[in-house]
Amino acid sequence: MVDIALLESDLTAAIAAAGSADALEDVRVRALGKNGSVTALLKTLGGLSPEEKQTKGPLFNGLRERVTAALGTRKTILEAAALDVQLAAERVDITLPAATVPVGRLHPVHRVMDELTEIFADLGFAVAEGPEIESDWHNFTALNIPPEHPARAMHDTFYFPADANGDRKLLRTHTSPVQIRTMMSQKPPIRIIAPGRTYRSDSDATHTPMFHQVEGLVIDRHITMAHLRWTLETFIKAFFEVDDIITRFRPSFFPFTEPSAELDVQCQWGGGELKVGEGSDWLEILGCGMVHPKVIAACGLDPTEWQGFAFGCGIDRLAMLKYGMTDLRAFFDADLRWLKHYGFSFLDVPTLSGGVGA
Ligand code: DAH
Fold first, then answer.
1. How many other β-carbons are positioned within 10 Å of the β-carbon of residue 77?
2. Closest Cα to atom 6, ligand 1: which residue?
């Protein structure tokens, strides 16, 4: 005859000693499994007389219930302990600096736009924006490029289908229409730069159908080309991080400026590397000039009172020159390896004090 009290104390001790879910399961199988000790006791009930069943039945079933309850209690305790261990192991220190988890890179074009914004903000310029889908009037006519003007042919424009009035919208071919929008919506004095996307139907190693420009515009009283030259030299020095540069204005033509010039910067090419501020080569950087009186008048301002200067510059080219990239098309391939190599950390914000190229 099995000693019930002894069996119960053995099982209770084994349950208390089980240190893991697996060990506890072993105890459960030994007691309540098909061949378990408690199961074996319960099986004997079938062969007992009705009187014996009345006494042994509650005894055996009571044992089974208490063992089951003890197993359940121990299981809860073991599970709580296991959870504590897991939580401790998976603990995340949210006070660690985010730089230890670098994900994603900023495109060099984005970076250069940030640098331009920082440099010109320091000179008192605000950032202006305009739509990429532009009217013919803003993109051409108001900029002194009337419909029959030959300069239109140079722009390889993407046109949209004409509307009911015969007006055709277009993808802006330059950022210059932002000059128009700014002069029409703000009162002078105006100092803005307008970086953004521009489009021309052109594609080879140095041209992509979508590219980036930055426009600059200053409108005030008594503005001269000397202000333009100083502003551009200050910009080039800050952008290429050199103390001294030599620039030259080459006479040029743009319908929206008079006089017009192109700015070259003294440079040296050596070993495939560009050095700005030394050497005997010249680097073409941008187009510029004094805003044509007709453009000022088209925006509803009196050109005898207000003058100004403007400039326009390709951003992709600036990025290539500064960061040593040779193929423009790679800019828009969306190749992650390229971006990892040439991209910038989003935490590495350009500042004039820290160096805009840092
Ligand atoms: N819009 C011209 C272009 O895309 C660049 C330019 C030249 C802009 C002279 C200007 C400027 O504002 O004054 O080629």
1. 13
2. 312
